[in-house]
Each structure stands twice: as structure tokens, then as C-alpha cells.
Design brief:
By secondary structure, the chain is of the alpha/beta class. The protein is built from 13 helices and 19 strands. The strands form four sheets. The protein has an eight-stranded parallel β-sheet with strand order 8-7-6-5-4-3-2-9. The protein has a six-stranded antiparallel β-sheet with strand order 10-11-12-17-14-15, with helices on one face. A three-stranded mixed β-sheet has the order 1-13-16, with no helix packed on it. Helix 3 runs parallel beside helix 4, helix 5 packs parallel to helix 6 and helix 11 runs parallel beside helix 12. The radius of gyration is 23 Å and the shape is globular.
Length: 458
């Protein structure tokens, strides 16, 4: 076994829940005023067609897997009947390739007449009849990425069309558009969505296209106008793709993390758990890290054929609870050395100045044997004198209440993860800790979640 003992990781200043709560309320109110929809207070959850089914329009030869109203009705049924909806997966989202190649003579978008013969309003009605919500795809450019009509020149018209179809979620891509025009165009389309009066989550691809073009995205404006946005490449059905996304979010966390919060989220793209490219261990890692970074949980998998062990990952209630934590603080990578990473996210409940935490230990080593990681809670930044109740969220092991000086050792499989939850305790040894024993300092969640040590400090 490879045993890695981690050196001390300093924690930032102790946190004041009262000051944080006031700050969060003010910050959230500001964003609601700008966006005007009050949606996505926690990251959206649901099912999205693209990664698994792409642009399969061949319903003659592949009727069960083509992009059609039948596919989306079937997935809506499964979300409800197999327990996904009860866990929070409540969006059924259409992606590209649902349109006719041309608008009608009045300039209206037209769903493909063969594959969506009853139209999108009928599909939305069916999804809503199941107690779910309905999402749709468009593109800010002249065309969608697959070459169907885009919204450019029809922003108000298309926003009103989506509202008339009772759409609940709009993803706006950025193919065939000039990145320099997105600072104006994405807010303008959001403005028209808001003016319809129908609440619609607004998912933007705005920053990723500007990053590709060498531009610096204006995240202040993006936060004000979008509920979520893409930062990086499209996910592919491979561990190398998932790993590259995790690396991007870790390497750029000082820029990315401050932008996340209730109503506005960084989007690392879809969950591919249960497809072809990830092992069981890698699937557990994606689910755990997506929860740590407060990601939207949008499954893109064939729910008709998913194997039980992968379904269990997607339906892990305790990890979903981490992702959906109401504080909405995105987690960070706090340690990286020789293929071992530790990610940490502050979550509820809180006691006085102390957060609870979700901690993920990730093993990116490829030497074929599990690695032992040993560290005290204090070294992870968990310093409440009342202690923490610690449990493993995959293995369902409860370690009881541990003090900050307790050393824990976890065994992490190659390309795998161990994710723990440490809930701060209001009492220690049946005795409430006096308030004066804690140190109160102002906490700014946008800059002071963690201090990350350089490699040469370990």
C-alpha cells in the first residue's frame, strides 16, 4: 500500500454565522433583483439528452434512441417511477436537434414534424403532468451547433415562444456567434425571458466561448443575468474528460469559486454516470466532486438500461444533500500532491462560528493499488472544540463524534474517491461549549473559504 501522510493545512479565519447569513441574504437579494426570476436557489437537477443521445435523428432505423418526443416522455416516466424525481431530479431537458431546419413563414421556430408530431407544448404538458419541469435548447448564434435555426435576430420572438410552450428551463449555446457580442446578447435574451412573466431557468454558454476566444469573461454581468453557465469543454464519455474538468475547476478555483451561490452556479457539464466510459470507481468520483463543487446534477444516461450499481450512485441521498446544501458555497481543492487530492466544501449545519464540511479524498494515481491517506480533522481545517460527527457517504459508515485532533485514515482506490461528511456538534461530552471560547471573525465567502498551501509547504 502507498501511505501518504498529509502535513498541516491551515484553515482560514473562524467564521461568523450571523455575519455570513446577513451577507448571504444581501448578496442573494441583489442577484434576484438583477435576474428577476428567483430560481435555482440550489443547483438544478434532472435529465438531459445530449451526451448520451447526441443528435440521433434517425427514427426510422433507431426509433428507441432518436431525439423524439417518445424518448423524452419515456425518460419522464422513469424519473417518476424509479425514484429519481423524489430525490430532486425534476427537469427533463431537450438539447440540440429538436427543430426543423427552417423557421416557418412567420419566423416561428418549428419542432421537427416527424419526431415531435404533437409539438413542444404537448411535450411540456406531459412532463408537467408527471410533476416535473421541462427544459429546451437554443443557440445565441445564427445556427445551433448542429446547424438548426438559432435565436439571433429573433430574441424576443423566441423567448415569447418558449413561454407560450410553458418551458421552465432554457439552455442557450454559443455556436455560430461572435464572442464579442455575447456581453450584450445573452443579457438581452435573458431580459426577454424575464419579460414573458414565466419563470425559466437561464443556462448560458457565454463564458466558455469567450474563454476559447482569449477573452476575459465579465463574471459580474454573467452572475447578474444567468442562473448557470459553462466554464469549460463539453464533457465526453471518458475518464480523461472528467479528470480534465476536475483539474480545470481546481486549477482555476480562485476565479471560479467566488461566482457560485444561490441562483447562480458554475456548470461543469453533465453527469455521465452509467454510460460506457467510466468505471464504477470513476463514476463515484464524478458524483462526489460534482457535489463538492455545487454543480447542477443533470444526468445524461439511458435510464432504461442503467445498471443498479450506477443507479445507486445517482440516487445517493447523502451526496445529493451535499450538492443541494442551502448555503450554496462551492467547495475547493485544498491539497494536491503526488496524485492525491483533497476537496472540501463548507455546508450546514453550523454551530456558532463553525461550519460542517464535506470532504472528498481523490486518488488520481495509476499504480494499481489503493492509497492510504492519514490526516487529523484539524489539518483539514475542522477545529470546533465541540467535535464533528463523521460519516462515509458511500460506505454508509458512521465514525461517531471525533475531536479536531483525531487522525483519520482513508483507503482510496485508484481513480476513486472517499467522501466524508463532518457535521459540527453543538455539544461535547454532553456539555455546551461556552460562547466565549470561540473566536469570532468576519467571514467573506467569496475570498476566504480556505487557504491552500503550496506544494513546498507540505
Amino acid at each position: 500500500m502507498c501511505r501518504i501522510v498529509i502535513g498541516y493545512i491551515k484553515k482560514s479565519a473562524m467564521y461568523s454565522f450571523t455575519i455570513f447569513a446577513v451577507f448571504l441574504a444581501l448578496f442573494s437579494s441583489k442577484c434576484v433583483d438583477c435576474l428577476e426570476n428567483g430560481l435555482a436557489r440550489t443547483p438544478p437537477m434532472g435529465w438531459l439528452a445530449w451526451e448520451r443521445f447526441r443528435c440521433n435523428t434517425d427514427c426510422k432505423n433507431d426509433p428507441d434512441n432518436c431525439i423524439s418526443e417518445n424518448l423524452f416522455r419515456t425518460m419522464a416516466d422513469i424519473l417518476v417511477n424509479e425514484g429519481y424525481a423524489a430525490l430532486g431530479y425534476n427537469y427533463i431537458n431537450v438539447d440540440d436537434c429538436w427543430l426543423e431546419k427552417e423557421r416557418d413563414r412567420y419566423g416561428q421556430l418549428v419542432p421537427d414534424r416527424q419526431r415531435f408530431p404533437r409539438g413542444m407544448k404537448s411535450l411540456a404538458d406531459y412532463v408537467h403532468s408527471k410533476g416535473l419541469k421541462f427544459g429546451i435548447y437554443e443557440d445565441f448564434g445564427n445556427y445551433t451547433c448542429a446547424g438548426y435555426p438559432g435565436v439571433l435576430g429573433y430574441l424576443q420572438n423566441d423567448a415569447e415562444t418558449f413561454a407560450s410552450w410553458d418551458v421552465d428551463y432554457v439552455k442557450l449555446d454559443g455556436c455560430y456567434a461572435h464572442p464579442s457580442e455575447m456581453d450584450r446578447g445573452y443579457p438581452e435574451f435573458g431580459f426577454h425571458l424575464n419579460r414573458t412573466g414565466r419563470p425559466m431557468i437561464y443556462s448560458c454558454s457565454w463564458p466558455v466561448y469567450q474563454i476559447y476566444a482569449g477573452m476575459q469573461p465579465n463574471f459580474t454581468s454573467i452572475i447578474e443575468h444567468c442562473n448557470l453557465w459553462r466554464n469549460y469543454d463539453d464533457i465526453q464519455d471518458s475518464w480523461s474528460s472528467v479528470e480534465s474538468i476536475i483539474d480545470y475547476f481546481g486549477n482555476n478555483q480562485d476565479v471560479i469559486v467566488p461566482n457560485a451561490g444561490p441562483g447562480h452556479w458554475n456548470d461543469p457539464d453533465m453527469l455521465i454516470v452509467g454510460n460506457f466510459g467510466l468505471s464504477y470507481e470513476q463514476s463515484k468520483t464524478q458524483m462526489a466532486i460534482w457535489a463538492i463543487i455545487a454543480a447542477p446534477l443533470l444526468m445524461s444516461v439511458d435510464l432504461r438500461t442503467i445498471r443498479p450499481e450506477y443507479k445507486a450512485i445517482l440516487q445517493n441521498k447523502k451526496i445529493i444533500a451535499v450538492d443541494q446544501d442551502p448555503l450554496g458555497i462551492q467547495g475547493r481543492r485544498i491539497y494536491k500532491h503526488k496524485g492525491i487530492e483533497i476537496w472540501s466544501r463548507p455546508i450546514t449545519p453550523l454551530f456558532q462560528n463553525y461550519f460542517s464540511y464535506a470532504i472528498a479524498f481523490v486518488n488520481k494515481r495509476t499504480d494499481g493499488t489503493p492509497s492510504d491517506v492519514a490526516v487529523t480533522l484539524k489539518e483539514l481545517g475542522l477545529t470546533s472544540p465541540t467535535g464533528y460527527r463523521v460519516e462515509d457517504l458511500y460506505e454508509d459508515v458512521n465514525y461517531g463524534i471525533l475531536s479536531p485532533l483525531t487522525k483519520i485514515k482513508v483507503k482510496v482506490n485508484p481513480s476513486g474517491v472517499v467522501i466524508l461528511r463532518a457535521d459540527v456538534q453543538p455539544e461535547f461530552n454532553n456539555r455546551r461549549v461556552p460562547f466565549y471560547t470561540t473566536q469570532r471573525t468576519i467571514y467573506d465567502p467569496l475570498t476566504q473559504v480556505f487557504r491552500v498551501r503550496n506544494n513546498n509547504e507540505f
